[in-house]
Amino acid sequence: MTTPADERFDPVRALERVQPPPPPKGSLAPAIHTSATFSVERAADLPRVFAGELTPDAHGRYLYGRPLNPTVHALARQLAAMEDAPAAACTASGIAAICAAALRFVKPGERILASRALYGGTYSLFARFLPSHTGIAVDFVDMQDLDAVQQAITPRTRMLYVETISNPTLRVADIPALARIARDAGAPLVVDNTFAPMLVAPMRLGADVVVHSLTKFINGASDALGGVVCASRETIASMQDLHDGELMLLGAAMDPRVAYEISMRLPHLHLRLREHARRALRYATIMQERGLRVVYPGLESHPDRALLERLRHPDFGFGGMLG
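Request: output the structure for the sequence above.
Response:
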């Protein structure tokens, strides 16, 4: 059958008329929102979104996927709850979270006071990259020696940085004591809690900011990269600011698909962590009984066992890492 030219089917126009359906009610799994940009219902709302007057939490408004995406934000809310933090923001990797936190608090010519016992990537960031590329200086100190920490603080110190359980030496940070020192110095205490999720809650102990590499325990399968910064609402909002926020401008955005995968693994995280700790203590005990030198915070021979006993949640043993 011949169709007149003015009645010819236009597949392009037909496709344009189809709109995505609204989210189904009753879905038990969160949606994966892959949109890079978001529309507004009224043009007058756009300036208010840019100004931060219309927000995701209060109004369900998103603008651009680099600082904020619904699926990624849902994961951030879960992680904030886990850390008892007011807010959180996810990143593409743990080192991106650490870098963003450092740049939020420290400017060129100022200093970070960091633990000597750090993950290698963090050490390289602090010892080489930040000094050479940003003019931020980093002083390293033995965080087990609180007097040395106090003496290492200078008038230009703007941040203290430590790992709850250090990678790879497995020393435990006295977070309450370090928080008091940081508070007296007027500098935030940033704690990397990658080795101790659920085991220790740094913000309840006085830390101002908690970061994680989600790649490790929280994801749990070595198949995805991710990071998170947990902090006050004001700090997170400033890092996500559409004009000059670190998370906006550094561009280390988490993929929504990765956020979904990690989110699906959080409900059984506590079961995994308990089993990690049970097995770690068992293996550490057996190896020590056989005369091997073992480093594990749950052993009586570990110098920080009593400290971790005071800081830890009793349901999660002494962690899943041993050396």
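Residues 268-316 form one domain.
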